[in-house]
Amino acid sequence: MALVRLQTEDFRNLSPDPVTFSPSFNLLYGANGSGKTSILEAIGYLGLGRSFRVSRHKAVVRHGQTRFTVFGGLDRGNSDAEGWHSESAGLSHRLGIARDVTLKETVLRVDGENVRSLSRLAKHLPVSVIDPGVFDIVAGGPGKRRQFLDWAVFHVEPSFASIWQQCQRVTSQRNQTLRNGRLDESLLRVWDSQYAQLSEQLSEHRQDTFDQFARAFERLVDEVDVPWTRGLKLEFFPGWDRSQSLPEILMSHREQEFKIGHTLYGPNRADIRLKFQGRPVAETFSRGQQKTLVILMKIAQGMVLSGLGRQVTFLLDDINAELDMGHRAMLAQKLRSLGSQVFITSIEHPAPESLWGMGDVPEYRMFHVEHGKLTEE
């Protein structure tokens, strides 16, 4: 699926006028503060249910308003490239999200019907963001890498979202029991049993998707000129030592968890461990190498979904400031080969031939952004 129509209401400074996009490449340029990133942010809401820039919904509502709305129309993507611009061609899906920040109420709609689960909305539009903050996947803590992996697992394994939500609820109940002030062993054994069962299911899905990702990553580094990746090892850590059962580990660390007041072992501690010659990549790779590694990891994710017949919508925000010309071209060419939908923002007027070469430019649409309004060129 690809996002071919977008309309917002009271979302930052964006104009309420509907915009039609290409299912392939969309190039957006304009001055700082013109609204380029806000457009990507609105698209992100349809695929992630949240902002990739800020943690609070309130921050994206137009000043003086209490509610914002984002509507998106999807078609079949690049398989429908010849007819995407035709109004008569229709839309495959219509997605909508509205948030009242005063009442703290969110309304989700898919094809005209209200849905309760965010996963019902997000499954239609796999959105992958590449912005300056994404490089924390390597340099940041395990939570960033866990989030990176879970995004792929969600789109690969249909049952993952439900199991993840159940595991979150059981973890919360278990933590509450640990914080009660007295050690209720009988109740903890009940939560341990449920937690261990869900953890095994969750970790199995994560491991399966990670294995697909690792194979794609290995193929990718064989195709591109990154000799410094030789000796790089990617490993999935489920959050506990699998040589022991999780209930045994929980029991043997009961006093430790009781003192701290929360669960210390299990899928909430999962990580993708990145090591080079036995040492963490964050300690051995240069900043430039870390950026390139994250880009390769993002492409490998796209390869996994592409292999399953899913089109990923990539949001590339201000990559000119983070990547040199060669890496930008490599990224654009690889995403083109995957059949991805891509949105690229920049301050300068884009030069498509610098990304793909003269005579080999794919189908694209270009927009100038000013005061939240898109004007197609």
UniProtKB/TrEMBL annotation:
Subcellular compartments: Cytoplasm
Q: Where is the RecF/RecN/SMC N-terminal domain?
A: 3-350
Main localization, broad class: cytoplasm
Q: Which residues bind ATP?
A: 30-37
- Which Pfam families does the entry mention? SMC_N (PF02463)
Superkingdom assignment: Bacteria
What PROSITE patterns does the entry give? RECF_1
Q: Give the keywords, sorted.
A: ATP-binding, Cytoplasm, DNA damage, DNA repair, DNA replication, DNA-binding, Nucleotide-binding, SOS response
Stored Gene3D superfamilies: P-loop containing nucleotide triphosphate hydrolases, RecF/RecN/SMC, N-terminal domain
Q: Which family does it belong to?
A: Belongs to the RecF family.
* Role noted for this protein: The RecF protein is involved in DNA metabolism; it is required for DNA replication and normal SOS inducibility. RecF binds preferentially to single-stranded, linear DNA. It also seems to bind ATP.
Name of the featured protein: DNA replication and repair protein RecF
Native source organism of the sequence: Marinobacter koreensis
